[in-house]
Design brief:
- The structure holds two protein chains of two kinds.
- In chain A, helix 14 crosses helix 15.
- The termini of chain A are close together.
- Chain A has a two-stranded antiparallel ribbon. Chain A has a two-stranded antiparallel sheet with strand order 3-4.
- By secondary structure, chain A is mostly helical.
- Chain A contains 24 helices and six strands.
- Chain B starts with 30 loop residues before the first helix and ends in a 13-residue tail after the last helix.
- By secondary structure, chain B is an alpha/beta fold.
- The radius of gyration of chain B is 21 Å and the shape is globular.
- In chain B, helix 10 packs parallel to helix 11.
- Classes of the chains: A mainly alpha, B alpha/beta.
- The interface between A and B is large, with 56 and 47 residues.
Chain lengths: 445, 427
């Protein structure tokens, strides 16, 4: 089955637009595909997103204190900073006028999955987040070249421990396996030699603790720690450094299809693209390695309009989509509300800046456990309580069940869901909350 | 509607209704009624209401303050109703066993032999394997001085850890009082058991709202969403199934009337589900140090053999599944599980192929540092105390060992100066 134009626009709003309130979505559906093109090519500043105040972190300072009390205080400080960072991004995703930018930032956060549990500094995580936002739609070359010396990623994958005297292969391996090439397209020897290319990068931390960017860090190359010799890596020979390493990896024939498939899996379908579609994607990606062109080609492909191209919504995207669809303003997300939302996301197993490991979050069935079904219902109730207007609109509609579908951006309910929701006609808030947990709403189809 | 707060009180002050005389019906003894009658629920920190922690709160705690890899975790399994110790750990070589138990007795060919003339109930095949590989400790003949044969008094004694005087706090509640934090002790029963009630702090129960379905129309609607639909794609069908699993989990975990019924139509006890949830929380690194789970229905005054065996089978499957799962992870290996009941039963069977309330019984322990094998001393079947077994191990000696070795606490501070411990039980 092929989607209609209207359904395809709705799906695009789901996949690359973080959801829209009912009015915005129907306007986009009336405009048709040009509205999707506009979504993919935002221009100018993000007025909505920029209205969300930047997170303010309290300086923590380097080093671990010796006594227990100071350790405890330091942990509390780090936790408060992490919460401020998570809260800020949730609000920004809700408030943004350029949802594609935030959507791609989220995509690359899951791709270069870096956790604050090891990085510790919220400021360093924010630096990485800014990088992903700034470069997440342009050239993958530039993105990858920046990430290979990203301070948070260097901490996360022990990059600063990688020296010519004592190599640490963590970053060299994961970059090839998970970020740019895929397993099976390099040898163990390439991992060892790649690690030597990456030696010598250390972090220089800001030591001005009166500044808001205290605890920021920059990566610098220490020549004395760098392996300044000729290496043979993935078939090339030379005295390579980190940027040569990236160029060589990205030039491998397996890299473009790998990157294209990863983007596809996050935006389009849990089913891999067929060879013809994959060719279209890598052609669009091209020698410039344009991410925006790749996404545009994916949305223009016939497979995008295949009814079967479905995705189980990641919990963060489900939550943000729900907040946006119901018109909850970012200002309604007070610190207390944000705390409740983050707790719900813990229950669902996906919290911003806390991926479980460098492989990122699970997908598909990973979001469909018993515990997550329970957490989702609690979280949906919390969100709906923030959206009295949307609930009122559903309550006042002549057909509240259909109105709930329109409010939540679902093309329509199955008979199963329609009849289940029918018992809640007189409880519009419960109706909307439960509808948000229906298979139609949890899975983007 | 509960929106931003997930901490609704679980226990209001309990109205104490006394049990209806000595001939209470088997089916009348549910955990909830025990808790209500025990009087403990109305006292201590419970009087103000324990906290209910949601799944989300606990998973968040696992992220913010994860379980220390060197800390022990204690899982308490309470068997409500009085498990018949003589038909669980059976003195099969003692001829007086068969003569005292008549129709209730197992034949030597039916049981799972241990050593020292003892054998396990045929329902305990998993525990037998754990015993054989040295991971199960059986402590025989556990009790306390001047045994009381009332469910409520005796369970109160075990849960408060205070045989001589009635106190308003549970033994692990007093442990919580040493360094208060409700996340440290979590009950998987929706009603908090008195053993987790301290003077200033009570343990938490896993919030009913965590897995319980809403009441009324909303609950009906949730059940409706669990149905499959011909319109579903593969992932929507999977989503509907996950809602169905939630409905099942909710029904088994949160229906307090899941006690075994005398008719034998007992349904699922939920013990395996409770332990599954405990394993999940431990594996996640939730910083809880004590979990309380339970299985009821052991008050086998009539037609005991089949009923007890099926309960023990249930216990066995739950415990061996739990042990197997815990053995697969580092965090799982931090756990010690301890099983007890408020008393054993009388040596001589009654006229209804059952047994009445008795005294000493066995305890089971497994997990980190547990020294497998037989501990304590099997009570004599001839040297009886008014027809009942004499205990040889005070349960506080077992508690003291777990406080010291698993929780790293001073037993004397928790057990009112108690200074001895069962040697060799925990390494």
């Amino acid at each position: 089955m092929t989607l209609t134009e209207q359904q395809a626009v709705r799906r695009a709003v789901d996949r690359v637009g973080l959801g829209l309130p009912a009015a915005g979505r129907s306007a986009a559906q009336r405009r048709g595909w040009p509205a999707v093109r506009d979504l993919l090519a935002p221009t100018g500043p993000d007025r909505g997103g920029d209205r969300v105040p930047a997170p303010r972190f309290r300086p923590v300072g380097p080093g671990k204190p010796a006594d227990e009390q100071a350790k405890r205080e330091r942990r509390q400080l780090l936790r408060a900073n992490a919460t401020a960072l998570q809260t800020w991004w949730l609000r920004r995703m809700v408030a943004t006028d350029q949802p594609f930018v935030e959507r791609m930032t989220w995509l690359w956060h899951g791709h270069f999955a870096t956790s604050i549990t090891k990085v510790r500094s919220a400021q360093v995580m924010l630096q990485q987040n800014d990088t992903l936002r700034r470069l997440g739609r342009s050239s993958f070359t530039e993105l990858a070249q920046t990430m290979i010396v990203d301070p948070a990623l260097l901490i996360w994958l022990d990059g600063q421990k990688n020296t010519k005297a004592s190599a640490n292969e963590n970053l060299a391996r994961e970059f090839m396996e998970l970020f740019a090439l895929g397993h099976g397209h390099y040898t163990e020897l390439d991992v060892q030699r790649g690690a030597r290319c990456l030696t010598g990068w250390v972090l220089r931390r800001s030591d001005d603790h009166d500044q808001t960017d205290a605890d920021a860090a920059t990566a610098v190359l220490r020549p004395t720690r760098h392996d300044d010799t000729v290496k043979t890596f993935l078939g090339s020979t030379g005295n390579f450094g980190a940027h040569d390493y990236v160029d060589i990896v990205l030039a491998q024939p397996a890299s473009a299809p790998f990157v294209a498939s990863r983007v596809w899996a996050r935006l389009i379908s849990h089913t891999a693209p067929d060879p013809t579609t994959l060719k279209v994607l890598t052609d669009a990606y091209g020698p410039e390695r344009r991410i925006d062109q790749l996404v545009g080609a994916a949305l223009d492909s016939s497979a995008f309009r295949d009814e079967a191209s479905s995705l189980v919504k990641e919990p963060v995207l489900w939550l943000v989509g729900l907040l946006r669809a119901l018109g909850v303003p970012a200002t309604a997300i007070t610190d207390k509300v944000a705390d409740r939302l983050l707790t719900g996301l813990h229950g669902l197993g996906e919290v911003p800046f806390v991926p479980p490991n460098v492989g990122g979050w699970p997908s598909a069935a990973g979001w469909l456990s018993t515990a997550s079904a329970a957490s989702r219902m609690g979280l949906a109730r919390a969100v709906v309580s923030l959206a009295p207007d949307a609930v009122q609109a559903v309550a006042g509609a002549s057909d509240p069940i259909a109105a709930a579908a329109a409010a939540l951006g679902v093309d329509g309910w199955s008979e199963r869901t329609a009849s289940s929701l029918g018992t809640l006609r007189r409880h519009p808030a419960q109706l909307v909350a439960l509808a948000a947990c229906s298979p139609e709403c949890v899975v983007s189809r | 509607m509960n929106t931003l707060e997930d901490g609704a009180p679980v226990i209001a002050t309990a109205a104490a209704t006394p049990p209806s005389g000595p001939s209470r019906r088997v089916s009348a003894l549910t955990r909830r009624r025990f808790l209500t009658w025990s009087g403990v629920a109305a006292a201590g920190a419970l009087a103000t209401g324990g906290v209910a922690l949601s799944w989300e709160r606990l998973t968040r705690a696992a992220y913010e303050t994860p379980l220390n890899p060197s800390s022990g975790v204690l899982v308490i399994v309470t068997l409500y109703g009085g498990n018949d110790g003589l038909n669980a750990v059976i003195p099969i070589a003692d001829p007086r066993y068969a003569s005292a138990r008549a129709h209730l007795a197992y034949a030597p060919g039916e049981v799972l032999p241990l050593t020292d003339g003892l054998a396990l109930n045929p329902g305990l095949t998993g525990l037998k394997s754990l015993y054989d590989n040295g991971s199960l400790a059986i402590v025989n003949g556990v009790g306390y001085p001047t045994p009381d044969r009332s469910h409520f008094v005796s369970m109160g004694i075990w849960q408060t850890g205070s045989p001589s005087e009635s106190v308003p706090t549970g033994w692990l509640g007093r442990w919580l009082d040493l360094a208060p934090d409700p996340v440290k002790a979590v009950s998987l029963d929706p009603v908090l058991p008195p053993l987790l009630a301290g003077a200033t702090t009570a343990g938490a129960s896993l919030s009913r709202s965590a897995l319980a379905l809403p009441a009324g129309a909303a609950g009906t609607a949730v059940r409706g969403l669990a149905r499959s639909s011909s319109d579903d794609g593969v992932w929507q069908a999977a989503c509907a199934r996950s809602i169905g699993e939630l409905v099942t989990a909710s029904d088994t975990l949160h229906d307090v009337v899941v006690e075994a019924q005398p008719s034998g139509d007992k349904g699922s006890s939920g013990l395996a589900e409770q332990l599954d949830l405990v394993a999940s929380l431990v594996e996640l690194g939730v910083p809880t140090r004590v979990y309380s789970v339970s299985l009821g229905g052991f008050d086998t005054h009539a037609d005991e053999r089949g009923r007890q065996q099926s309960l023990l089978t249930e216990l066995d499957r739950a415990l061996s599944g739990f042990a197997g799962r815990l053995g697969r992870t580092d965090r799982g290996s931090q756990v010690v599980t301890m099983v007890y009941s408020e008393f054993g039963r009388r040596v001589v069977a009654n006229a209804s192929q059952g047994t009445d309330h008795g005294t000493a019984g066995p305890m089971f322990l497994m997990g980190r540092g547990v020294v497998g094998g037989l501990h304590g001393q099997q009570p004599s079947l001839t040297d009886l105390d008014g027809g009942d077994l004499r205990s040889h191990v005070d349960f506080r000696d077992v508690y003291a060992a777990t406080l010291d070795r698993v929780l790293g606490a001073d037993p004397g501070a928790v057990l009112s100066g108690w200074s001895t411990s069962l040697d060799g039980l925990l390494s």
